[in-house]
What does this fold into?
Amino acid sequence: MHTKMKYIPACQQIISRVKRYLPVMLFILVVALGLNSFISNKNGLNDAFQDLFNKNYSIFALTLPGELEFAGEEVPMKFFDVRENLDRELLVNTYWQSQTLLFIKRANRYFPLIEDILRKHEIPDDFKYLALAESGLTQVVSPTGATGFWQFLAGTARDYGLEVNKEVDERYNIEKSTEAACKYLAESYSKYGNWTMVAASYNNGRRGMDKQLTRQREDDYYDLLLNEETSRYVFRLLALKLILSDPQEYGFHFRADDLYPPILTRKVKVDSSITSMVEFASHFNMNYRMLKYFNPWLRETQLTNKEGKVYVISIPFDDFRSDVYNREPLLQISPNGIEMEEVRSVR
It folds into this structure.
């Protein structure tokens, strides 16, 4: 009896504490049950969403064309290896959606200019896809030093009339580098008599291509065993041609104002030195950054020009940065694509 009496106060103390904290404990229990229910329902929602996603997002095999040509020359689609090589490049460029969509957007800005120069030099229009494959229509520099839209090495650029030095590098000049590329391509066609081989030799180099022609006693690109890059090269051009010629067929959907519009500029001739490109830009109501955007071939903040050579600098119109997407599509674009004729000279 004495032992029981001893524990009665302790029990009463425990009961008192339980009563005191019971509301808190019940609240915690309710929250825990509610949270568990929420998580269960959320998982159910996630599962339902995932199921819906799985049913609606699909990867499709691509239908290959029965007939295809590059620069007016037939692609032998009857050969299984030709079909499979084209299939590979079509899949890579179709399902690398972000890159290919950027290609489509940039092509709207730069293809008109490139097409006009190709036409002037009687180079097939399909070679615009070569510039796209080489650089993505950006002023990229390769690990070997090849530069610009057409990826010229410095020595080759000089051979075809481009100025390359510390202050001026015309590999970055879209018009002049395209002119040089046309000369190179025309020379290659005189050598091979075949535009497909011209395209392949642009990637592999004429010396490298000549070596393989001699070793293998073949003269057709589709019959040659070439290195991995060159063996894929023409097929990549074909894939880009197919996609950009009919983007929606390959799943690319966009509105007209999603594309990068050509930007209207005027030409300014300079036949003297420029001590400060920053001040020069300011004179035309723009900053140095925008001057370099339109003239990336100007490599320094000054232009010495000791010989008094005439340089043509592209100058955008006032308010161009805020007005580009407000213009009507291709408004006032001149016959040579993006640029208008030169309207003034600066000394």
Q: What stands out?
A: The mean pLDDT is 86. Residues 1-58 form one domain. Residues 46 and 52 are 10 Å apart (CA to CA).
